[in-house]
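[step 3/7] fold_predict: job queued, chain A
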Amino acid sequence: MADTLAPSSSPPVEGGAHAPADGTKRDFLKLVAGSFAAVGVGAIVWPFIASMNPAKDVLALASTDVDLTHVAEGQAVTVMWRGKPVFVRHRTAKEIEEAQAVPLSDLRDPQTDQSRVLREPWLIVVGVCTHLGCVPLGQKSTDPRGDYGGWFCPCHGSHYDTAGRIRRGPAPLNLAVPEYEFRSDTQVRIG
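[step 4/7] structure written:
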């Protein structure tokens, strides 16, 4: 049976056996097979890893630009950012005055109006109630705005003031203020 095998390229040793050479065909085949296996595993695993990246529609919503030229004084608009409603309100002088006059001792989650606003008269808050994630009413002029003139969550009765601070009801925290910056006097970028 030894006569039918292909001869090795290594020189014969005592007794007619061949000594292993530095690189045999078997070593080469193992290397090639291992390389193909590694590439195959990578080709199978890559789609799963790539699926963990954010989708293009989510990346597009990472920041939202809002044109403020069409928002009149006393009016509010809702824009979507990262799948959440964001309330942009052009507050009146009376609303600003009322928000600034509230003593911090009256607030469940004490924050000054100035700490929640980057530039007067604009208030920008995430429109999600901090109790159970409902969307409060108060964006339309016909909506009930609660006892403090801001927003009212009808699900459980949370009342927010004109600075988006919780004043009454079960909500534990103020409406969240997203990261935003003014790009100009009439443009704001949220996110």
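[step 5/7] annotate
Helices lie at 25-50, 56-60, 93-101, 113-116.
Residues 25-50 form the longest helix (26 residues).
exit 0
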